[in-house]
Amino acid sequence: MERLLRELDKVLDSRQILQNEPLGRHTTFRVGGPADLYLMPGFSQLSALMEILHRHKAAVTVIGNGSNLLVGDRGIRGVVIEIGRQMSEVFVRDDRVVAQAGALLSKAAQEAYKNGLSGMEFASGIPGSVGGAVVMNAGAYGGEIKDIASVVTVLEKDGGIRKLTNDEMEFSYRHSCAIEREYLILEAEFLLQNADSDDIRRNMDELKEKRLLKQPLEYPSAGSTFKRPEGYFAGKLIMDAGLAGFCVGGAEVSKKHCGFVINKGGASAADILSVIRHVQKTVKERFGVELKPEVKLLGEF
Fold first, then answer.
1. Among residues 28, 89, 168, 225, which is most buried (max CB within 10 A)?
2. pLDDT, tens only, 11-40
């Protein structure tokens, strides 16, 4: 570890290197044990950093805004890399918004609105980062990343940088080829349409009102906990199974929207996982439908 830290000091400054960092500080569930090493590189530092980590055969986990993660109470061994504030530039070029992977998706949507570009309104309330959204083909209210992503810049495992087209990303429901190929997203370019800014703002405000009315935004969560099963809605299945308000410790199936498992206060990752497993078991027994988590489980539980 000391040798690794000495090499990291040549690439990152001390503020970008944290040891035994509690991951509850970096996830929207507000739970998660410590990372052995937590690194926050900038765009220009990433290639050199990955080369060092590869040479040391370090176990590496990459996270963004932590909005779609459940990290175990015992944390994550090895190195956690945050693609976040140090890689969050957004700019507009003609009818395209170009965003680094660490930028919040909502920030990119705001830049689109300010420049009279439509197509990202659905993303204005998604709490994740651009990188995470691209990897998982995030979506809401009828829109998905695959509808607007034109070019995605990725870092390959061997350190090579590639630009991939929409087709090459192989987007599908909550999925892209970045998962299997272990691409690290660096930047995404979104192709949008010119429109009246007032109309864009009105659409964004309407979607915001829907979220406030229907989603338990007042509590820590990771958004929709389960993927939508084909032919069904996860929230309705859970409600019909009588699981609204089911809780373990501080974790609860939201009464406001049963598709959300929330941290009502003081929940552990084990509490949240117990609720998820109970919901899966009950829905399977009652309706024969297998609910798959949309939330990604990381670390040691």
1. 225
2. 999 999 999 999 999 999 999 999 999 999
Specify whether 224 is catalytic: yes
Establish whether 294 is a catalytic residue. yes
User: What is the Rg, in whole angstroms, of the alpha carbon atoms belonging to the chain?
Assistant: 20
Residue of 121, 129, 144, 174 marked active site? 174
Q: Which two tokens stand for residue 24?
A: 């509850």
Q: Is 77 exposed, middle or buried (0-12, 13-18, 19+ CB in 10 A)?
A: middle
| Catalytic residue list contains 89 | no
CA distance 206 to 124: 11
- Chain segment 229-250, per-residue pLDDT in tens: 999 999 999 999 999 999 999 9
By CB atoms closer than 10 A (0-12, 13-18, 19+), residue 19 is exposed
* Candidates 111, 144, 252, 294; catalytic one: 294
Query: In terms of C-beta density within 10 A (0-12 exposed, 13-18 middle, 19 or more buried), how is residue 143 classed?
Result: middle
Q: Which amino acid is at 151?
A: V
pLDDT per residue as tens digits for the range 66-80: 999 999 999 999 999
From the list 106, 124, 129, 224, the catalytic residue is 224
Q: Look-up: residue for tokens 């220009």?
A: 44
Q: Which residues contact 229 (CB under 8 A, 6 or more apart)?
A: 237, 289, 290, 291, 292
| Three-class DSSP category at 276 | helix
Cβ atoms within 10 A of the Cβ of 157, count? Answer: 11
C-alpha 284, offset from chain centre? 27
8 A C-beta contact, residue 185 and residue 130: yes
Distance separating alpha carbons of residues 177 and 1, to the nearest angstrom: 32
